[in-house]
Amino acid sequence: MHYKLSCGIIVKTENAAKPETQGSKYLKSILANLTHVSTSFDYGCGKLRYVKTILQKTDTLAIVDSEVQISRFQKLRGTVTSIRNIIRGTNHIRVYNETEFRELDMKFQRGFCINVLSVIPVPAIRMKVLATIKSKLQRQGTCLFVVQYRNSDFTRMQSLSNTRLWRDGFLIDSLRNPSNPRQPFRCTPL
Ligand SMILES: C[S@@+](CC[C@H](N)C(=O)[O-])C[C@H]1O[C@@H](n2cnc3c(N)ncnc32)[C@H](O)[C@@H]1O
After folding, report:
1. How many angstroms does the Cα of residue 152 sit away from the middle of ligand 1?
2. Does residue 62 sit in helix, strand or coil?
3. Is 58 in the pocket of ligand 1 (CB under 6 A)?
4. Higher per-residue pLDDT: 11 or 52
5. 0.85 exceeded by the pTM?
6. What is the pLDDT of residue 150?
7. pLDDT given at position 6
8. What is the pLDDT of residues 13-46, one digit of tens each?
9. In angstroms, what is the span from residue 36 Cα to ligand 1's centroid?
10. Does the structure show a pLDDT above 80 at 152?
């Protein structure tokens, strides 16, 4: 998803996604201990980093991201392909862009929203994402949110020359292109 900010910067959040090989062992151990459910979604699936692990605990999985992320050709699982192409060959995963997902007439038992809120540089859009997620959960449904909001790196990053404060977080101009934003919800040094 691209976010055009009023300061003129365009934040290309699809570039913030890490590959499958860089999954967090800690998070994977949490996912592996969940009970099995019938339906789940992974909102902001990125480069499918946690999809295989999530699949072990659900019968069907909806993966959601921007059309840019799911249609573009990129290196995934060692091959240059697109997420839409990979998913075409499976019958227990469905792929949706965020608009298709919002319009979907289905509710899920479990959702995941992993490292997504922290790359959205507009607080009002974060609230919309939360509302969409809530609307797609069954009455007893649950969602696991992962937001890295406290990290010694964040304190260090704030004082870098290529960092600028933005709303409730900050933007890092990586390679002169602020496509890898980090927005901890709390920037105060501990
Ligand atoms: C840091 S990546 C995390 C990807 C994956 N969850 C992971 O942990 O590897 C953030 C992802 O959120 C997606 N994203 C950003 N804004 C979004 C929105 N409003 N709706 C859906 N996905 C969004 C980006 O395209 C990107 O793939």
Report:
1. 23
2. strand
3. no
4. 52
5. yes
6. 67
7. 86
8. 998 899 999 999 999 999 999 999 999 999 999 9
9. 24
10. no
CATH among 3.50.50.60, 3.40.50.150, 3.30.70.20, 3.20.20.80 for 10-146: 3.40.50.150
Kindly state if the Cβ of 70 falls inside 6 Å of ligand 1.
no
Q: What is the DSSP string of the chain?
A: -EEE-TTS-EEEGGGGPPPGGG--HHHHHHHHTSPPEEEEEEET-TTTTTHHHHHTTEEEEEEEE-HHHHHS-EEETTEEE-HHHHHHT-SSEEEEEHHHHHH----EEEEEEES-GGG---HHHHHHHHHHHHHTEEEEEEEEEE-----HHHHHHHTSTTEEEETTEEEE-BTTB--S-B--S-----
Residue boundaries of the structural domains of the chain: 10-146
pLDDT of 189 reads 29
